[in-house]
Amino acid sequence: MGKLIKNHWARLIVLTSGAYQVAAAIEGFFWPKIFWDFLTKTLDGAVKPAPILQIINLLLGLFVLAWEWPLKYIAGTWIHRSIEARLILLPLPSLAAVLLYQGTNSALYYLIGIGVYFWAYCEGEMVCTHPWTLPRRGGRGKV
C-alpha cells in the first residue's frame, strides 16, 4: 500500500471548496443573505442592494480553482509549488465564504484543507512542478 500524499488530498479538498464557493456566490445573487444577520444587520449592505460580497466570493472561488487545478500559465510557478503561500492566502477566501450564508460549507472545507496542507508542510512534502505527479526520487546506483 502506498503512502498518503497529503498535498494532493488537500488540493482535492480545496478544489471542492472553491467549487462550492463559486456555487454559493451564484446562489447569493438570487437569495442575498449574510450568515451573521441574526446578530447584527450592519453587514446587510455587503449583499444588497449591490452584490459586493457575492462578487468577491465569485472572484476568490475562481482564483482558487485556477490556482489549485492549475491553469497552464500558473503550473510550475513558485506560487503553485509553494505550500507556504497556500497557508497564508487560503484563509482569505475562507473568511469571505463564511460571511455569505450560502458559503459556510465552503469555509469549513477551506479550513480542513488548510489543516491538511499544514500537515503536509510539517512532514516536509513538496508540490511538484507538473500537477498531479509524484516527486522523483534520487537516482539509484548499482548495488
What does this structure look like?
- The protein has 143 residues and is mainly alpha-helical.
- It is built from 6 helices and no strands.
- Helix 1 runs antiparallel to helix 6.
- It is elongated and about 60 Å long.
Set out the fold topology.
Layout: H1 6-30, H2 52-68, H3 78-81, H4 83-89, H5 91-99, H6 104-122
Number of strands: 0
Radius of gyration: 18 Å
Indicate the structural class.
mainly alpha
User: How would the global form be characterised?
Assistant: elongated
The biggest beta sheet, please?
none
Helix content: 55-70%
Low-confidence stretches: none
**What string gives the helices and strands in order?**
HHHHHH
Average per-residue pLDDT, rounded, comes to 89
Strand content: under 5%
Query: What count of helical segments does DSSP give?
Result: 6
Distance between the termini: 25 Å
Offer a quick outline of the entry.
The protein is mainly α and 143 residues long. It contains six helices and no strands.
Keywords for this entry:
143 residues, mainly alpha, 6 helices, 57% helix, elongated
